[in-house]
Design brief:
Elements: E1 10-12, E2 15-18, E3 21-22, H1 23-30, E4 34-38, H2 39-56, E5 60-65, H3 72-80, E6 84-87, H4 90-98, E7 106-108, H5 115-124, E8 128-131, H6 134-146, E9 151-158, E10 180-181, H7 182-193, E11 198-204, H8 215-235, E12 241-243, H9 261-279, E13 285-288, H10 292-295, E14 299-311, E15 315-320, H11 329-333, E16 340-341, E17 353-359, E18 368-376, E19 383-386, E20 407-412, E21 415-420, H12 425-429
Parallel strand pairs: 4-20, 5-6, 5-13, 6-7, 7-8, 8-9, 9-10, 9-11, 11-12, 12-13, 15-17
Antiparallel strand pairs: 1-2, 2-3, 4-14, 14-15, 14-19, 16-19, 17-18, 20-21
The structure holds pyridoxal-5'-phosphate (PLP).
Pyridoxal-5'-phosphate binds near residues 65 and 68.
Length: about 425
């Protein structure tokens, strides 16, 4: 179970410690719900990705998918670790810019970028825009032309491949709102190449998320490169860059065994290299866009137990002070989590375990964080630590029930740095006008 937690996690005097910080002291000092990010885990994931790709394929770029979660302190870490950033909104772009992230290393995805989004991107001097549809081709050409900019773009192709993951996490099949389907991709190349202010330098695809079976990547790379070959012959299209998106899955449960970053890098780099050789292509710059597999394991959510309701013979509900407003994944797509009691973490034969259901505090019956988990007997005031909460929790957080979004601390070597303060009641009304 501890292996789901950040790499620095230990148990000391019955308490979980992360980055050398005792979680009970973090809870006392910063309150709960609290999101704890372990700097060592985050940096080592960045390095693992960088090294795994660089040694197999020197001209590669790791572009962190900010949708998993971004704030200014984290953006600075990604900058120091030499990653690029993949943003999907003007908002994510604004955070990256506010953090001083080099704009030439930012890539912009998204299926409905607004005029305002694209204006901001051009004004910032963004590195790449991944163009998703015909509307965007003409809108971006106009905006870039008005700004007298030659914008380098990639075209997002939807290669019609099923990644065998949850339907809500699938993006690259035929029936998808993202990208140009294969049947329209040629028209997209022709249109983009005829635009005077766009420079189409490559192709992009992203087949889905939380993927364990790597075969769909092989199929997608081959499909997209075969398409590039035809476009080279017909339009003299030069595939200088290829983005294979993100999607590598992580373990949310002790039993699950996802492919390693090395397996992922092997599959992608070998397939691209072999296909280039057989088609007579020079190796393009290779871009990957991992989100979850960079930041997921680094984050832990810490909650305090409040009300406990035991319905005899039915279920024992243990309610905590967070829930679907900070982590909607269990309600949204039945995501499963494990947990530990942070202040009763010692394995001891005398510890009495019981089966409980951990409920959130929000007004939805579906606000259940974990159904049926065996934990040491808890009482109000105990702390529940949920691992693998670094990705797609805080970035999907809401103010439902006027919840205050949690504080975040970054821990390392026994120090905890607040990198986002807890929201206040004043924040809740700060955008209202009366
Ligand atoms: N790139 C694109 C275009 C995406 O839509 C996503 C997420 O769905 C990602 C990258 C990151 O995926 P993951 O967090 O599964 O690595």
């Amino acid at each position: 179970m501890l292996k789901l937690f950040p790499l620095t996690t230990k148990i000391s005097n019955g308490h979980i410690t992360i980055g050398g910080c005792d979680t009970t002291e973090l809870a006392a000092g910063f309150g709960t719900p609290l999101y704890i990010f372990d700097e060592t885990t985050l940096r080592s994931k960045c390095a693992e990705y960088r090294e795994a790709f660089e040694k197999r394929y020197p001209d590669s770029v790791i572009s962190y998918a900010c949708k998993a979660y971004l704030n200014r302190a984290l953006a600075q870490i990604f900058d120091q670790e030499g990653l690029s950033l993949d943003v999907v909104s003007g908002g994510e772009l604004a955070i990256a810019r506010a953090a001083g992230f080099p704009m030439e290393r930012v890539h912009f995805n998204g299926n409905n970028k607004s005029r305002q989004d694209l204006d901001l991107a051009i004004e910032c001097g963004i590195g790449r825009i991944i163009v998703d549809n015909f509307y965007e081709i003409s809108l971006l050409d106009r905006i870039a032309g008005e700004a007298d900019v030659q914008q380098e773009i990639l075209l997002r192709i939807s290669p019609g491949i099923d990644p065998h993951t949850h339907a809500h996490l699938t993006t690259g099949n035929v029936d998808s709102k993202f990208g140009f389907p294969m049947t329209q991709a040629e028209e997209a190349i022709a249109a983009a190449m005829s635009c005077s202010s766009l420079n189409p330098v490559g192709l992009h695809f992203h087949i889905g998320s939380q993927i364990f079976d790597l075969t769909p990547y092989i199929q997608a790379i081959n499909a997209v490169m075969d398409f590039a070959d035809v476009m080279r012959a017909k339009y003299n299209f030069n595939l200088q860059e290829l983005s294979t998106g993100g999607g590598l899955g992580i373990a949310y449960s002790s039993e699950s065994v996802p492919p390693t970053v090395g397996d992922f890098a092997d599959t992608i780099t070998v397939t691209v290299t072999e296909r280039c050789a057989s088609l007579g292509f020079e190796l393009p710059k290779l871009i990957v866009e991992p989100g979850r597999s960079i930041i997921g394991q680094a984050g832990v959510a810490l909650y305090t137990v409040g009300a406990i309701k035991d319905i005899e013979g039915v279920r024992k509900y243990v309610s905590v002070d967070g829930g679907m407003s900070d982590n909607i994944r269990p309600s949204l797509y039945d995501a499963k989590y494990e947990a530990m009691v942070a202040n009763k973490a010692e394995k001891h034969p005398a510890v009495e375990f019981e089966r409980i259901t951990i409920a959130g505090k929000y007004c939805e019956s579906g606000d259940i964080l974990i159904k049926d988990i065996d934990l040491p007997k808890v009482e109000p005031g105990d702390l529940i630590a949920v691992p693998c909460c670094g990705a797609y929790c805080l970035s999907m957080a809401s103010n439902y029930n006027a919840a205050l979004k949690p504080a975040i601390v970054l821990v390392k070597d026994g120090n905890a740095r607040l990198i986002r303060r807890r929201e206040t009641y004043e924040d809740l009304t700060s955008c209202d006008t009366v």
